[in-house]
Amino acid sequence: MSHKSIFNVITIAAILLSSFSGQQSIAQEAAVAATPVPVQSAVILAPTNSRISFVGIHVGDDPKPRLGGFADFNGYAVVDPANGTVSSLNLDINVDSVWTQFEKLTGHLKNEDFFETEKFPTAKFASTSIAAGENGKSTITGNLTLHGETKEVSFPADVKMENGGMLLKASFQLDRSIFGMDKMLSGVDKLVKVEIVVGEKTAPSKAEPGHGGKKKKQSSTDNSNKLQKVSLNVPNMS
Amino acid sequence: MRSDLKAVDGVRNIETDLDELTCSFEIDSGVDAEELVNRLAEKNNKLADWTFVEN
Lengths: 238, 55
What we know:
The structure holds two protein chains of two kinds.
Chain A: H1 3-33, E1 41-45, E2 50-56, E3 66-70, E4 73-80, E5 85-94, E6 98-100, H2 103-110, E7 122-132, E8 137-146, E9 149-162, E10 165-175, E11 191-198, E12 227-233
Antiparallel strand pairs in A: 1-4, 2-3, 2-11, 3-6, 4-5, 5-7, 7-8, 8-9, 9-10, 10-11
Chain B: H1 2-6, E1 12-17, E2 22-28, H2 33-43, E3 51-52
Antiparallel strand pairs in B: 1-2
């Protein structure tokens, strides 16, 4: 074998060794990088299986609670079925889908006194931590974007796994004023009771006309028992 | 507005409805309701454009 041939054999051997060594290195890197991914389930949340509703009350002696909610939203919860815990909750809400028991009230909630849906059409909740306690009692903390403002909120929730599915119920008071929804505070309480329920579908009440206020059709003066009842329209009251 | 009405002697059972933007209250039958409300409206511009609820 000539010197040139020997040189070629050595060169080929070196290339093969180098190539093998490279493949081994890649294989080792791949082996090191492989980390088992915990098995979790994402539960898709939608009005067909979940409900986001609220109850607002009036200030004063007669709270006249008003039920409402959102008909259009989507989101997901990340669930660890083995432990029966939720590790993440995310919701995107079409605020213009707000409904109440009364048509006129629904329109009022959409305007600048409350949600300003044309300016702020979406609301969003993204959990940042969920602390699981005993018996499914959890505390969900996250960022709520509402009316263009993002604030951290925290609320309790009951979480259960039942028949291979997930149930969640959270009920809490939300201060609308911290989201810049600070109109009509003298008449409509700033605290709104919010419910997020997974396992109950959204079923908006059939809306009646008007605001749901009492029909004040009394005479402006009603002489009875030496008293007169005076009923006023006060368009600037708010 | 409610506090303005509360401050008037003889005004009772004040109910405000912010949905309908109405306000109801009771006064003695001998009191001129229109004069009373006009007097309050001079001090409180929320009452400026008030009208009686019609039958």
